Amino acid sequence: MKEQACHCQPAQQHGWSAVTVIRVRREDSKVDIKPFKVQVPQAVLDDLQERLARTRWPDEVEGAQWDYGANLAYMKELLEYWRTSFDWRAQERAINAFAHFRAEIDGWGIHFIHERGKGPHPMPLIITHGWPSSFFEMLKIIPLLTDPASHGGDPADAFDVIVPSLPGFGFSDRRTRRGPLRAHEAWAKLMTDGLGYRRFAAQGGDIGAGVTSSLGRFYSEQVIGIHISSVDLVWPTPIPDATVLSEAEKDYLERVTRWEKEEGGYSHIQGTRPQTLAYGLNDSPAGLAAWIVEKWRAWSDCDGDVERCFSKDELLTTVTIYWVTGTINSSIRAYYESQHDPNPYPLKLGERIEVPTAVAMFPGEKDLIVPREWAERCYDVRRWTEMPRGGHFAAMQEPELLAQDIRGFFRMLR
């Protein structure tokens, strides 16, 4: 295998920049990979500061709390912290402590982290985030998986961890074409053609659970197993008649219907008129923060206090990534594509995803928690864990619990 040194010119796109680097690339690789560094231009941060200082606040119904949406008093507190105390450069340094790259796959620029495991035989593991999240959610869990021995674990459980940014999210290219995400196809090429892994494992939550499921379904020869930490599972085709459903499954479908009525407004507007919504979210940091943070509060088991689960710095780093990359519109377009082609890869009648599967259910998912018998209609479930705490953003909120479950499941498959 030959290697070739190449000089990479700096790139600039939607408020961030790569840096000039020397890269070493396999000549026989079908995927062009370059080292990358997160480096937001100061002008972008200065503009953000000016917009925060000029926030035009809405009114609020007396005593509304969070009933009508993001609470006014909390948002004022959070944005004041964003304006006066939040240190993006410190977060940027912490982010850049990991090994970042950009790959060109079928004309798409895909950002990803690639951290090597410290153990006798690290297993390659690709982890996919969801919405409104980013690669940043996974930073706490990466060391627990790459270097388990340093965190009370067994070095034999080590992983090579790959964390990409979905197309249209973070530092990956924005999606501007119609059609389903197809991230699983890009991930398979990244792992095999780009990084040279013959076989690999996959994990994900939310949108990432769908991507992970598709990897297990369409690349079963390459995928060792899949671990899903979210309620966004594949549904059976067709949906079984009520006469054959368990009571838990009937209750689940009723809960999903109730949740969609009470909590699903964001999904409906993102799935029908994302462009209209994007003008406000892309132009107003206050609007963007409210739209995102309200979901981090609602989808965690924080008992109404989002900072019981996430710090202001964690929340604002997530929001700032969306802001400096200008990717809120491209990220929510995934909902439009999903609702207009709600099942682009439907299971065939009686089909299941046959790679070994683990499912971790976190209580913060509330009405969307899936019963095991429902999941077993579509997956070969080998491990089922009902977590004691945690929610939708488990990798950030409960990294130790999630890492232990991932290590425990894949230990059986090594």
Biggest sheet record? 9 strands, mixed
How are the strands of the biggest sheet laid out side by side?
Answer: 5-6-7-9-8-10-11-12-13
Going by helix content, strand content and strand pairing, the class is: alpha/beta
Give the SSE order as H and E letters: EEEEEHHHEEEHEHEHEHHHHHHEHEHH
CATH superfamily caption: Alpha/Beta hydrolase fold, catalytic domain
CATH architecture classification name? 3-Layer(aba) Sandwich
* Assembly of the depicted chains: single chain
Q: Terminal Cα separation, in Å?
A: 26 Å
Shape: globular
Q: How would you explain this protein's 3D organization?
A:
The chain has 15 helices and 13 strands. It is α/β, with parallel strands linked by helices. The chain has a nine-stranded mixed sheet with strand order 5-6-7-9-8-10-11-12-13, with helices on both faces. The protein has a two-stranded antiparallel sheet with strand order 1-4. A hairpin with a 2-residue loop joins strand 6 and strand 7. Helix 5 (183-194) crosses helix 6 (207-218) and helix 8 packs across helix 12. The radius of gyration is 21 Å and the shape is globular.
